[in-house]
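Board notes (copied after class):
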Amino acid sequence: MVLKKQTVWLLTMLSLMLVLGIYFVNIDREGADSPGELTGSQTAEGDLSEATAEEQMLANLDGSKEMTGARIKREEQRSREVEELQREASNEENSAEEKVEANDKSIEILAFTDNEKELESLLKEQGYSDAFVFSQDQNNVQIMVQANELSNDEAVAIMATAREKLELNERAEVSVKFEPIEE
């Protein structure tokens, strides 16, 4: 995958902002009352506000519950992968080559995730109620669209669009499934 220097720089800065944002949010939570532990009432309020915030986030997401849950799982998995790679990149015991390789891999994961999201948006623009794209690696891509039915021609068109958008090689397996629209 060929990435322009500006794209690499932008993705690096975005990932850095994400890590710093999470770090500062966690510091704010821990320092709410004192540098020690939170009291019981504060913990209960924190758990309640987190649950409410999560419910609001889920309510604001488009698409079916199944696809929304899959998106959240994908984001969590990718975040863990990028976080682990960033730890490797910042580990003093690793060589410079290992650090660069870990950083490059994390940038590649972020770029591929963005391409998946763009493909989802493109499929929605093509008239599908919702779409979800997930790839474990660049050789196995799973696509789910929300539609009443899906013809073979439509599935082939989706596969071709995915190969182009995700820059997949000819050997990559692309599977397309559909989920009926809930009424």
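Comment from the instructor: The chain has a mean pLDDT of 77. The first helix runs from residue 5 to 30.
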